[in-house]
Design brief:
Blueprint lengths: L24 E9 L3 H10 L8 H4 L3 H6 L2 E6 L20 H9 L3 E3 L9 H15 L2 E3 L5 H4 L3 E5 L2 E9 L20 H13 L4 E7 L10 H12 L1 E2 L2 E2 L3 E5 L7 E4 L2 E4 L4 E3 L3 E2 L5 E2 L4 E10 L9 E13 L4 E4 H6 L5 H11 L10 E2 L2
Parallel strand pairs: 1-2, 1-13, 2-3, 3-4, 6-7, 7-10, 10-12, 17-19
Antiparallel strand pairs: 1-16, 5-6, 8-9, 11-12, 14-15, 16-17, 17-18
Length: 364
C-alpha cells in the first residue's frame, strides 16, 4: 500500500452552503485500465507522433469522473520505459497512461492485480513513480515496506477517506527477493486489520478495492460472495470496519449488491481494453462492457457515527474497439446511437442480485 503523497483535488466540488466537516461527497469508481498493444498503438496515433496520449480514448468517461468529489480507477498494468512497451500476456504500458488518468479526473488508483509483477519490482517502481508525478494517489503495490503500511489517504467533502487494495494473486510470479510487501494479496484477516488500523488513524470512510473473481463469469463466484459477506460483517463496536467494496478483474460487468448494509460491487468490467478472446477461444465483446459506480455519502448524524451512502448509482459504459473510445451508453442512446442492447445487458447483470430493491439506480 502507499500513501497519497500530495493531496488530490477531492474537495473541488463542495456542497453549496455547507461548512467544512459537514459536507457529503460523491465517489465514483471504474473498472480495469488494461492497455493492450492495439491501445498503445492508438495512443501513439492520438499523440500525433509525439509520444503517447491516452486521454482521447478516456474522454467519454471524463464528464462523470471529473464531476465527482473523489474518483478511483484500477490501474491493472505496470509501466515500462524508453519505448519498451508491451501488451498481453506480459504488460508494460507507457507511463503516459498516468497523465491521461489525471486529465480524466481520477484522484486515486488501485494497483494490486495479477499483472502487478509483470516486470518485477522495477515495474512497480516505475508505475508508482509515474502516478506520483501525475498527482494520483495509489495503493495495492509498494516500493518500500514503510509505504506498504499506509493506505491511500484522500479527502472528499468533509471526510477523510482511506483506500485499501488487494489482489487474488500475481499469475504465479513470486514476490521480488527480499520484498514480500511488494503486492498486497487477498487475506481476510489482513484486510480487516488494515481497515481497522485506517479507522484508528482517522479514516471516516474506508474503501476496499478487490481484484478478484473468475474471468468471463457474469455471476460473482463463491469466494467473492463469501469474502464480501465476511468483510461487510466485520465491525468494531456497532460501526462497520469497511464502508464500500469495489471489485475488478473478471473482464465482464458483474452485479452490485448491498450486503450487511454495505455496498459491494463484485466487478465493474474493463474500462479500456482491446477486443479479447475468452476461455472458449472466442472473441468476446463482453470484455468491453462495464459500469462506473457512483456513491453519494452523507455525514453521520452524530459524531463518530458512520458516513452513510444516501444514493447509489451505476452508469453503463462501453469501450468501442472500432474507434478505441470509451462510451457512456446512456449518453450515446440519447444521441441516437443503436446501443440499447449493450446498455440493457449491463443493467440486467448489475441488478441481477437485487440491487434495485436496495435502492441502486441507473445514472447518467
Amino acid at each position: 500500500m502507499s500513501p497519497s503523497g500530495s493531496a488530490p483535488e477531492a474537495d473541488r466540488h463542495p456542497a453549496a452552503g455547507s461548512t467544512a466537516g459537514e459536507r457529503g461527497f460523491t465517489l465514483v469508481a471504474s473498472g480495469d485500465v488494461l492497455p493492450h498493444a492495439a491501445l498503445i498503438r492508438q495512443a501513439e496515433v492520438d499523440a500525433g507522433g509525439d509520444g503517447y496520449d491516452f486521454a482521447p480514448m478516456l474522454a467519454g468517461a471524463k464528464p462523470v469522473v471529473s464531476k465527482a468529489d473523489l474518483a478511483i480507477c484500477h490501474m491493472e498494468t505496470v509501466y515500462g520505459a524508453n519505448g519498451d512497451y508491451t501488451g498481453y500476456p506480459t504488460f508494460k504500458s507507457p507511463p503516459q497512461v498516468a497523465r491521461a488518468l489525471k486529465t480524466t479526473g481520477y484522484d486515486a488508483c488501485s494497483t494490486a492485480s495479477n499483472h502487478s509483477l509483470d516486470d518485477g519490482a522495477a515495474g512497480i517502481r516505475r508505475t508508482l513513480d509515474a502516478l506520483d508525478e501525475a498527482g494520483i494517489a495509489h495503493v495495492g503495490t509498494a516500493r518500500t515496506a514503510a509505504e506498504d503500511k499506509e493506505p491511500a489517504w484522500l479527502r472528499a467533502g468533509g471526510a477523510k477517506v482511506a483506500q485499501l487494495a488487494y489482489t487474488y494473486g500475481t499469475n504465479g510470479a513470486p514476490m521480488p527477493k527480499g520484498k514480500p510487501w511488494s503486492v498486497d494479496l487477498i487475506d481476510r484477516e489482513k484486510i480487516v486489520a488494515d481497515a481497522r488500523a485506517a479507522r484508528r488513524a482517522g479514516a471516516d470512510v474506508v474503501v476496499v478495492s478487490m481484484h478478484w473473481g473468475t474471468e468471463w463469469q457474469d455471476a460473482p463466484d463463491r469466494r467473492q460472495l463469501t469474502l464480501g459477506e465476511r468483510l461487510t460483517a466485520s465491525r468494531t463496536g456497532t460501526r462497520p470496519d469497511i464502508d464500500l467494496v469495489i471489485g475488478t478483474h473478471a473482464h465482464v460487468p458483474q452485479a452490485y449488491e448491498k450486503v450487511n448494509g454495505t455496498w459491494v460491487v463484485y466487478g465493474m468490467g474493463d474500462q479500456i481494453a482491446n477486443l479479447m478472446i475468452n476461455h472458449q477461444g472466442v472473441r468476446d465483446p463482453r470484455g468491453n462492457q462495464g459500469s462506473i459506480g457512483r456513491f453519494t455519502f452523507a455525514p453521520p448524524a452524530e459524531p463518530g457515527g458512520r458516513w452513510v451512502v444516501r444514493k447509489a448509482e451505476f452508469i453503463p459504459m462501453w469501450f468501442d474497439t472500432r474507434v478505441m473510445r470509451v462510451v457512456n451508453l446512456n449518453k450515446a442512446l440519447a444521441q441516437g446511437a443503436d446501443v440499447s442492447a449493450v446498455r440493457d445487458r449491463i443493467r440486467r447483470i448489475v441488478l441481477s442480485r437485487g440491487a434495485g430493491e436496495s435502492g441502486l439506480e441507473m445514472g447518467q
